[in-house]
Design goal:
The chain has 486 residues and is α+β, with helices and mostly antiparallel strands. Helix content is 46%, strand content 15%. The chain contains 16 helices and 14 strands.
Length: 486
């Protein structure tokens, strides 16, 4: 079933518990902190109905497609690109992200052992009900020194199984960081960071509906709440996906929703021994590419607004940004061009985006975003501070006349110039922009984690053979053959 946007909004009225500080939010679809972003998600649901695939008589969202051909991979990429373009790459955990993880896992489900049937059934549930899933797969930072809690004789705050019953497990504790959870149907709880061998209770991997009793979402400061109008905060106004800590207080998880239990190694292996991590992060690459195109276009418009685009040094900056955008586009295209036949399960040969190129692009995005934003910041100069505080200046006839006369430039009328700079500020200097600067830096974990993925996937035997073959072509020379050095 392909949901409509209005159907998705209705599904969010499920008794979920969301807190902004001490304020309990009754309805995220109407609350001023979330309502516009909720409608952005609804818009994605309406748009992506045109990007589907059919099995039998049923249609499913294209990001649930288990690719068997390069054309299937292209179909997946098209829906990722459509969603990313619609949100300008600003929704990092859009509905196609975690769904891609689960789809990739379902392509090599035997990795899940005794819980394989649970994983496959969950994949079917997600695609049939067109569910929006997000994940919380990192322990809270406070939990990374368990000895402290042992000495204080208090429980470690990270989420863990506290009891097993005939009908499921009970979990308590916190997980971070459930980006987009206030707009989602499901939270996938797991572990992307390796666990110690004795962290068996913490190895739980499961999925819970957001409205499950005992589950609460503690939102960081919502930026949409403080956006007075779309003109003054065009990005925060409708693209603040929010980030939440997930608090579980004796939450019952039925056995059929458990995918890993009491296995510290498997808790992480399910991501890298299946195409899950690759499928999910190909979406990340495509999403960042859309954001990169926004940045490049905005940089050029800013330069044109001041006339500086004619200056050779400015053109050099713009040319560099264009080259970076094209490089990322090439890495994404290469993931399809050099796609892998992996995994091969029985007679089902699946196609996976080239994992090495995907991880290289992921590393590129993590490393490059800050410097790219800095280049845009330099192009803006002090122009962003020369604008009136907000667009209400247009409501006073006298001020409006002065503003339109003195703030115009030969290249741009005053209002359009202000509109452009307000957009730039929301991408480089506002609280919304600051969140994105931090978010992109740690999007896939700390930089060493991303580089370790690249290290793991590198063909070291091939690299070594190049060196060994070269050295095999010559040996220790005879003394007489040595040339004398003058």
């Amino acid at each position: 079933m392909l949901k409509t946007g209005s159907e998705h909004l209705e599904s969010l009225r499920d008794g979920r518990v969301v807190y902004i500080g001490s304020e309990k939010v009754d309805d995220v679809t109407t609350h001023p902190a979330f309502r516009n972003a909720a409608r952005s998600i609804a818009g994605i649901y309406d748009m992506k109905r045109d990007f589907s695939f059919q099995e039998g008589k049923e249609k499913f969202s294209a990001y649930f497609l288990k690719a068997k051909t390069r054309e299937d991979l292209e179909k997946r990429t098209r829906v990722h690109r459509a969603i990313a373009d619609m949100s300008h790459g600003l929704l990092g955990r859009s509905p196609d992200h975690v769904s891609s993880f689960v789809t990739g896992m379902a392509m090599n489900s035997s990795v899940f052992g005794k819980f394989e049937k649970n994983l496959l059934a969950y994949y079917e549930k997600m695609r049939k009900e067109d569910l929006y899933g997000v994940y919380a797969v990192i322990p809270p930072q406070a939990a990374r020194n368990p000895e402290f809690y042992t000495r204080q004789n208090i429980p470690v705050p990270t989420l863990r199984v506290v009891r097993e019953d005939d009908d499921g497990v009970v979990v308590s504790g916190m997980k971070m960081l459930a980006t987009g959870a206030v707009f989602a149907n499901e939270i996938w709880i797991g572990n992307l960071i390796p666990l110690a061998p004795n962290q068996l209770a913490e190895s739980i991997t499961c999925a819970v509906p957001v409205g499950t009793p005992g589950v609460t979402l503690w939102s960081r400061k919502p930026f949409e709440l403080h956006a007075r109008c779309e003109f003054d905060s065009p990005l925060a106004w409708r693209f603040d996906e929010t980030d939440s800590m997930v608090m579980c207080d004796n939450v019952k998880v039925p056995w059929e929703r458990v995918f890993v239990h009491m296995d510290a190694v498997l808790a992480r292996d399910i991501y890298i021994k299946t195409p899950g991590h690759c499928y999910g992060n190909h979406q990340s690459n495509v999403r960042f590419h859309a954001k990169m195109q926004l940045i490049v276009g905005l940089a050029s418009k800013i330069a044109q607004a001041s006339g500086s685009h004619e200056i050779p040094a400015v053109r050099e900056v713009l040319g560099r940004l264009c080259a970076l955008e094209a490089a990322l586009g090439g890495m994404i295209a290469g993931q399809i061009q050099d796609a892998e036949d992996w995994p091969v399960v029985g007679n089902e040969g699946f196609k996976t985006f080239n994992r090495r190129y995907m991880y290289a692009a992921l590393n590129w995005c993590t490393e490059s975003h800050s410097s790219i934003i800095e280049a845009l910041r330099e192009l803006c100069g002090g122009g962003i501070f020369q604008m009136p505080a907000d667009i209400t200046v247009m409501h006073d006839p006298k001020l409006r006349a002065q503003f339109e006369q003195y703030w115009q430039t030969p290249q741009l009328a005053a209002v359009e110039r202000m509109k452009l700079y307000k957009l730039a500020w929301d991408l480089i200097g506002s609280e919304f922009a600051g969140r994105h600067l931090q978010y992109e830096k740690f999007y896939a974990g700390a930089s060493f984690i991303v580089r370790n993925h690249n290290y793991r996937e590198a063909p070291w035997d091939g690299y070594h053979k190049v060196v060994e073959d070269l050295m095999a072509g010559y040996d220790v020379p005879e003394a007489a053959a040595m040339k004398k050095v003058a």
